[in-house]
Design goal:
Elements lengths: L2 H20 L15 H23 L16 H18 L20 H21 L2 H5 L1 E4 L2 E4 H25 L5 H23 L1
Antiparallel strand pairs: 1-2
Helix pairs in contact: 1-7, 2-4, 2-6, 3-4, 3-6
Length: about 210
């Protein structure tokens, strides 16, 4: 087999695998330490999935769109990101897990309006959320607590947070689409599929 033919086969194989790579998190956040075992690791995995996609959207959204809102009295794009960050600090705080110094659940959501301030705030809130979740002992997770009038456990509070992150991820995707922004992970998937199609087409023509 010639070197040129071998090279073509290698390229085609790499492009075949490319769509799977498109689903991976943002490269800057892809390298993570080994996750804990069991429930703790599984929940952490989905926290990181929400983080990766929300941060991707926050970075892909232009500053001019941060003040956009779909209607009166509805959160703006930037306020949704800050709402997620506020809950990431505030809900653990309601369960006795200390938030950063100076954090005020009542005012934090509207404390920042600029993209340059909101993106790092969102990232920092997920770092706090994931660390406090990982640091919980089994006994800590079983402690009873009450959130928004409902009796639960600390574990249940973090499951609420997991649901909250993905709820507002869906909202943020809808906001992005309404403003002509393709979610970055979808854009990567589409680019990989287009590259694969372009590579396969010449090979089919040669037949």
């Amino acid at each position: 087999m010639s070197i040129a033919k071998l090279g073509r086969l290698f390229t085609a194989a790499a492009l075949t695998l490319a769509p799977a790579a498109a689903f991976l998190p943002h490269p800057a956040r892809a390298a993570e330490a080994a996750a804990p075992a069991g429930l703790k690791g599984e929940v952490l995995q989905w926290f990181k999935d929400a983080e990766s996609k929300l941060v991707d959207l926050a970075e892909a959204t232009p500053e001019s769109t941060y003040a956009w809102r779909p209607g009166k009295d509805v959160r703006s794009t930037g306020e949704v990101f800050m709402h997620v960050a506020s809950a990431n600090y505030g809900i653990p705080g309601l369960m006795g897990i200390k938030p950063p110094e100076g954090f005020d659940f009542a005012t934090f959501e509207k404390s920042k309006t600029k993209k340059a301030d909101i993106v790092p705030t969102l990232k920092a809130s997920f770092a706090h959320l994931e660390k406090t979740w990982t640091d919980l002992s089994d006994a800590d997770m079983e402690k009873p607590t009450e959130l928004f009038g409902m009796k639960t456990t600390v574990r249940g509070g973090y499951l609420l947070l997991l649901s909250h992150c993905h709820e507002h991820l869906g909202q943020s995707i809808a906001y992005a689409r309404m403003n002509g922004i393709v979610p970055p992970w979808t854009a990567r998937q589409q680019a990989a599929a287009a590259a694969k199609k372009a590579a396969v087409k010449p090979a089919a023509q040669k037949k």
